[in-house]
Amino acid sequence: xxxxxxxxxxxxxxxxxxxxxxxxxNGNDVAENASxxxxxxxxxxxxxxxxxxxxxxxxxxxxxxSDEPRLKGKLLGHEVDMKMPMGDRKIAIPMxxxxxxxxxxxxxxxxxxxxxxxxxxxxxxxxxxAVTASKIDQAGIKEYVSFMRSRFSDAEMTEFEKQGRQxxxxxxxxxxxxxxxxxxxxxxxxPMIVKMGYDEKLITIELKNEDFYKHRVIExxxxxx
Length: 225
Description:
Elements: E1 3-8, H1 10-20, H2 27-34, H3 39-47, E2 51-67, E3 70-75, E4 78-83, E5 89-104, E6 113-116, E7 119-123, E8 128-136, E9 142-145, H4 154-170, H5 177-195, E10 203-206, H6 209-212, E11 217-219
Parallel strand pairs: 7-10, 8-11
Antiparallel strand pairs: 1-2, 2-5, 3-4, 5-8, 5-9, 6-7
Helix pairs in contact: 1-5
């Protein structure tokens, strides 16, 4: 895989803001919250977000396979490795794989929030990535099969698609999807915290480095056609 297109889900972020936010507060409420410990309320509202999807990558991958029958072994004490006169089978399968980055807030707790004087610090759970869809571009398949060989079976095609998805999964550490996911999550959380009476300049959203480079990939139900 050499090419990918990163699309930030602005509409998803807007929906997440509505889904995660608490009730509207008037000026008196904000003033009251500023003088009381409302961290439990903040934790409750953030946990409402559950799995917060904030980034999406659409990856184009071409899976290639070449089946060239060969005779290998020993003949009169000599190693033999020769091509058989049965013809070749070759195929190139283009496919599209969708990755979505999200933060799982289901276990978000007071250990993720601390106060340092007037400053509030929120530690994000590590970003995670889900393979949400994969689809073979049937019209783009290039196949060559010698007349002496059988065509590729449905089982082989399914295996090729599986290999393509795995190749995309293996490329995740080279992408910036985790960083994008974390940055967009912060953009959602900061307005929530401000609504509870905190000064935006005194809000810190952090992501610990030891968590940032751990990639736990969850393969969702693929949309195969």
